[in-house]
Structures are given as structure tokens and as C-alpha cells.
Amino acid sequence: MKILINTLPSKTKKSNKKFMSMEIEKKFRDTDEIEIIETNFDLKAIDSYLKDQIDIIFLLGCENNESDLIDISDLRKKHNNISFVLEVKKPSTSFLLKCFELKIEDVISDAKSNIIEKKIREKIKQHESFLLNKPHEKKIISVLSSKGGDGSSFIATNFSYALSLDKRKKIVLVDMTFPIGNCEMYLTETDAKFNISDFIDSMDRIDNVLLDSMVQKIKVNLHFISGNADFKKIANIQNDEIITFVELLKDLYDYVVLDFGSGFDPTTLNIISESDDILLITSDNILSIRNAAKKLSVLESFNISIDKLSLIKNNIYNNSQITKKIISEGLNHDIVAEISHEPEVLFESLSLKKSVFELKNKSLISKNLLTFTQSFFGSLEKNMSPSLWNDIFKINFFDK
């Protein structure tokens, strides 16, 4: 969850009080869920900044006047996917009614750090409650590469992140490339407390509460299960236990994204056969294309429908001679997406262990993945703005 705390310049001039984002972030240091940015823009200048996937904005130092209301109204209409919380000293009744009409999440009279922390926690709890109680789509999506190094973990990680941009969907990414585990390299610098072997050991008693305490929360609606596990523990896991665990996850999430890497054993094939969708990653490399042909043949021999398979070309080697058309004709299967060659974006993602959507959301790679995700699952609905006016009106705007 990305949070912007903006103190208006007029407020800054009147007071030396300055919010330190680090002070609030310390209170969330045990989670990857929260990123806080602190700025000092006026209401007109903040507009362009809000395009950067902000979830909540705290506008501090708003004036109880018509001018500020007009600017806030313009911002709210342009960015209806963002939750707005305003700090206004002694707001008038007409000001509050207008804020209510605009579906402003809340109006506070004093923006102390503990109040902001409370509002952030309310938002997280509200979102978690919604995700817990809503019906789930229950889809399994298997991601595999033609050969090692084709980028299945990179694509699975960022594909999962793209899915999570729809805040009404709950996603879990499971790294099936155990015992090494690759996905966290592109997702988080925080080590997971539990890995897949721990989950399987707890499977007979796992429920929403236990699962919620064990998964690594990248965002409120994006969870991660690491494959970085002790080899001895992994060796003792039975194939049917893995299959049962995946089915259990399916009941608790909208999308269960499984990254198999280049692995292709009987357990993998059994899970893939039960998957709703399969993403096969190939690259601009002859060996990769040959392996893709072999894997397509194996899938067909196991009576796994190729109709649910999407072929993605990852331009790792920047080989212009191996075109999308050549691969499609050679494999007799359409390529549904092509990932651009941007080594600097990949390097930054690896270095900082963050999704490309967090780092370079205007990169060609992020655009490629977002376009594919939208075409694959339809438009990503971002407008999930539960109201925080509950204290006064007991009203929720979830379904409006």
C-alpha cells in the first residue's frame, strides 16, 4: 500500500511542524505492505504526483474555504481510485457535507502521527475484511519456462503484481522452484518467515487465520509463499500433499499463481492439468523454442488442453532475427504477449528486489505485462474505496 502524506505549503509557512514518514513507517516495519512518501505540494501541483499508484493521500493543512474545496473536488474526480483523508481545523458543516458528497474517506482536525497510523490501519483492516468475506474466483494459474533462464520467475512475480492492481482481487504467488526459490529476488528484500514446507506441515490445521499469519504480505491483496526451503524438508514432502495444498489455496484466493520455472516432473504435470490457465514462457533463443515444442507435446500427450495455454515471448537476448511470427509458426501456437528487452529495468528490479511496477511503472516491460494482464482477465478494477466516514454516518461506499 503506497501512502502519500502531503503538507500544503500554506500549512508549512504557519508551522514548523513536519511529518516524518520514517516515524510512521517504523510502526509498520514488520511488513512489506506499507510505503510512505512525504511531500509539500499545493493542491494544483499534487495532481501529477497522484498518477503513481497512490492508495491513500493525506492532505494536511487544508483551509476551510471554497477555493480549497474546488481544488480538492477536481482532484477527487480525476483520481477516484485513491482514498482521500483531509486535515482541516474546525471544518464547517457545509465543508463536511461537500466532503461527504465527494466521498472523501475522512476529515481529521489534527494530523498527529498516531492518528495517521490509526487511519492507515483502519484502511488495511477494511480491505482485509472485504477480501476475506467476498466470494473468490478460485483460479489456478501455472507459469513455466521452456528452459532455465527464460524468465518465468520474473514474469510470474510481475504478473501477480499486475493482478493485484485490481484491489478487489486476492492473489497468492507460490514459488514452486524449491528448494532454491527465485521469486523473492524480484519482489521483496525481506526474508520470509515461513516457506512452502512449513505450510504443508501445517496443512491439517490451516485456515484463513493461520494462513494470514504465515504468508508474506507484499500488499494487502498480494501474498507470497517462498520456495526457499531446507532440502531435507522438501525431500520429505509427498506429491499428493503439494496437490492438496494448492487446492486448499484455491478456496482462499481469487488467483493462485504458481511459478514452476523450468521444472517439468509428474507433480508439476498433475497440478498443471488442474490449472485454469497456463503461461508458457519462451525466449528469443533456439534452444528455448525447441524446449517449448517438447513441452507442448508432453502437455498434449497428458491430455492437457492447449486451449488454456498462453505463449509469451520474453526478449531476453534481444535477438531480432527470432521474431514473434517465426516462433508462432514453428510452435503452431499464437504468442499472446511479448516482453520488451530492457536489461536496466531487470537489473534494478534484481538490485532492489522490487516489482517493476514499483520501480518503473512506465517501462515497456510493465506496459507489456499490464496490457497482457488486462487482455487476459479484463479491465483491472482499481476503484475500491471503502469510506472511513463510519464514525459519523455508518455508511460504506464499497458497492457504489
Termini separation: 22 Å
The oligomeric state of the chains shown is: single chain
Question: What sort of overall outline do the alpha carbons produce when their principal axes are compared?
Answer: globular
Secondary structure: number of strands: 13
CATH architecture of the largest domain: 3-Layer(aba) Sandwich
How would a textbook summarize the main sheet? 8 strands, mixed
Structural class, judged by helices and strands? alpha/beta
Instruction: Output the CATH topology of the largest domain.
Output: Rossmann fold
Please give the domain count: 2
Poorly predicted spans: 381-400
Taking all Cα atoms into account, the compactness measure Rg is 23 Å
Q: How confident is the prediction overall: mean pLDDT?
A: 84
- CATH structural class of the largest domain: Alpha Beta
For CATH, the homologous superfamily of the largest domain is named as P-loop containing nucleotide triphosphate hydrolases
- Give me the number of helical elements: 18
- What percent of residues adopt helix (DSSP H or I)? 40-55%
- Spatial strand order of the main sheet: 8-9-7-10-6-11-12-13
Residue share in β-strands? 15-25%
